[in-house]
Design goal:
heterodimer, A: about 260 residues, globular, B: about 350 residues, alpha+beta, Rossmann fold, OB fold (Dihydrolipoamide Acetyltransferase, E2P), 6-stranded mixed β-sheet, 5-stranded antiparallel β-sheet
């Protein structure tokens, strides 16, 4: 690569970094501004907005509500997704491609459309808007990611591992529980973190299927309607920090687990 | 039941779609034998192993284990264990846990399992590695753990699927000796599959040479080496001289053939073509002797040395036999004799009847 190309490449790279991070940095910065009006110049800094967030019962309960939804929907996605992955991987049967396609579809449908569809279907089934409906919608939406991650891991499990277990006296169920499942744990951990973050972050489905209690993104949206304030920046920054830490930790964790085996 | 062989394969045929992997294989294996299935890839040796293990079901035929029909039994319900080609050690279990896996599933008690683990680990010199994970072991150690895990549940038959393939050449020789000695000491029946003829010759009591789903020859290593029945066996095992001629006839165990006007005598297997048909004979390189005058051996021809290859402990010589339209023979001799021979002086080459096998095609 010659010199001009190298310079060009680094320019593109840094432009990309700026594009991604400048808005985030501005958001974080404004959360510390000692004034109700967002914008430059910043004359003095304060932690008051953060204090306000941690003392605000509404925000805390929305946060806990979001966490509960994320945990429950993730458990659902993992059970269903792992099951489907185990059924699909390494097997050849008529209609496998169709089943695989339908499994992946929920990840590709635009959020607003699936949210409306869920809303209509929930009413038809008589399910009240609220936590149950949101958990259900999140779980369905996240299953494809679990299926893809678990299938990828499963495809690297040597066939001889299962045969060895069978050879030593394990029936298919014991072989799955004692050999296949431990092998899948890193993938399941990675998929779980991803599902947790996806659910925590979701707005559209939570908005359409929610009852009176708002999730954190829905609450932020509601607050935005009554005017922009550094309080929102503070909430967003806290959420950003949390998800970034979990995401980075999960990435390192799965990489280490994959190296071990 | 004491007369029944340990394993009986009765007319086993296996088809995968249109390909026939095994056709009409029938064979008995006696208790305590070290049997090797030898052949090129795709000859059906691995399929036979997998049928014995219960991982494949034959299209036709029966598998009897100690007289009992186990053809349709899944692997977990057979008293047969296997050492896999990639060892298939469980990565998330220690050496001790790997060895204990089969014992646990046999329903053995904790103290009993512990005792058996200790016994087998000391037998295979793995005591120091009990708490290690497979990733922390060398290739040779992993191979021993795989063997220990398969031997621990005390199987009636041990299957070994090319278990030395992943080892480097130096280690392989050592492990061959070890395996043979383990087999002797445990009195277990080993069913070994390999494509490596040297490995087969070193370890086996009995070798079954397979080709295209059929048995080419079944015998001791010596029989296979010195009395190959077919051309495939002669060429697959070791290096050999193939002499193409015409069959004159048979006299008891002796077959007489014509090789470019030379009359040669060799041993005759069953199923030779009738006299007058083209035939091939095999003589091992080290069975040819060099003589200054015509020797007393059953077969003798005169030739000239046309090439020498120094191999260290011995020398390979190429000899053109003038009386046989310049056909060449290749022979081993010690380096001293080889050096003394010159291409200018004709030399007599002799070999006896038992050294030459007339082959079926």
């Amino acid at each position: 690569m010659n010199r001009r190309n190298r310079i060009l490449l680094s320019c593109v790279y840094w432009a990309f970094v700026a594009y991604v991070f400048v808005p985030l940095i501005l958001m974080v910065l404004m959360g510390f501004k000692d004034s109700k009006f967002i914008g430059f110049p910043i004359r003095s800094y304060t932690l008051d907005w953060y204090m306000g967030v941690f003392e605000d019962a509404e925000t805390i309960s929305a946060f806990l509500y979001s966490v509960a939804i994320a945990v429950l929907s993730t458990i659902g996605s993992i059970i269903v997704g792992t099951w489907i992955a185990v059924l699909l991987e390494g097997r050849k049967f008529w209609g496998r491609a169709v089943i695989f396609g339908m499994t992946i579809l929920p990840a590709l449908i635009p959020g607003i459309i699936s949210a409306i569809a869920f809303r209509i279907y929930a009413r038809y089934l008589g399910i009240e808007p609220g936590m149950g409906a949101i958990v259900w919608a999140h779980a369905v939406h996240n299953v494809p990611f679990v299926v893809l991650v678990v299938m990828a891991r499963l495809s690297t499990l040597p066939k001889s591992q299962i045969e060895a277990a069978r050879d030593l006296g394990a029936d298919p169920l014991i072989a799955f529980l004692r050999i296949t499942f431990p092998y899948l744990v890193p993938a399941i951990m990675g998929a779980s973190i991803f599902c947790l973050l996806l659910s925590f972050d979701d707005f559209v489905r939570s908005f359409f299927l929610g009852g009176y209690e708002p999730t954190l993104p829905v609450l932020i949206f509601a607050k935005l309607k009554s005017g922009m304030s550094p309080e929102i920046n503070a909430i967003a920054t806290a959420a950003l920090l949390l998800t970034a830490v979990i995401g980075v930790w999960a990435e390192r964790f799965t990489r280490r687990m994959n190296k071990d085996s | 039941m004491s007369n029944a062989p340990l394993v009986r394969l009765d007319g086993i045929t296996k088809r995968f779609g249109d390909t026939v992997a095994l056709s009409e294989l029938s064979l008995d294996i006696a208790e305590g034998e070290f049997v090797t299935f030898l052949g090129p890839s795709g000859c059906g040796k691995s399929t036979t192993l997998r049928i014995l293990g219960g991982f494949e079901q034959p299209t036709n035929g029966k598998v009897l284990l100690r007289g009992e029909d186990v053809t349709r039994r899944p692997p977990e319900k057979r008293n047969v264990n296997m050492v896999f080609q990639d060892y298939a050690l469980f990565p998330h279990m220690t050496v001790r846990q790997n060895i204990g896996f089969g014992l646990e599933l046999k329903g053995m008690g904790k103290t009993e399992i512990r005792a058996r683990q200790d016994e087998i680990m000391s037998f295979l010199e793995l005591d120091a590695f009990g708490d290690r994970y497979p990733a922390q072991l060398s290739g040779g150690q992993r191979q021993r753990v795989a063997l220990a895990r398969a031997l621990a549940p005390d199987p009636a038959l041990l299957l070994l699927d090319e278990p030395l393939g992943a080892l480097d050449a130096k280690l392989r020789g050592q492990v061959q000796q070890e395996l043979k000695s383990i087999q002797r000491r445990t009195h277990k029946t080993f069913f070994f599959v390999t494509h490596d003829q040297e490995e087969a010759l070193t370890m086996s009591d009995r070798i079954v040479v397979m080709n295209k789903g059929k048995v080419e020859q079944d015998g001791t290593p010596e029989e296979l080496y010195f009395q190959p029945a077919t051309r495939f066996v002669a060429e697959f095992i070791g290096e050999t001289n193939l002499l193409h001629g015409e069959l004159r006839g048979t006299e008891g165990d002796t077959a007489v053939m014509d090789w470019f006007g030379q009359t040669l005598r060799g041993t005759a297997p069953a199923g030779l073509p009738v006299a007058g048909q083209p035939v091939t004979a095999s003589v091992r390189l080290e069975r040819l002797g060099f003589h200054a005058a015509r020797p007393e051996t059953a077969n003798a021809v005169q030739g000239r040395v046309t090439g020498k290859t120094f191999l260290g402990s011995r020398m390979a010589l190429d000899i053109a036999v003038e009386q046989a339209q310049g056909a060449t023979l290749r022979a081993y001799t010690d380096a001293g004799t080889g050096q003394a021979l010159s291409g200018d002086v004709p030399v007599w080459i002799g070999w006896d009847e038992a050294s030459m096998a007339i082959l079926r095609d």
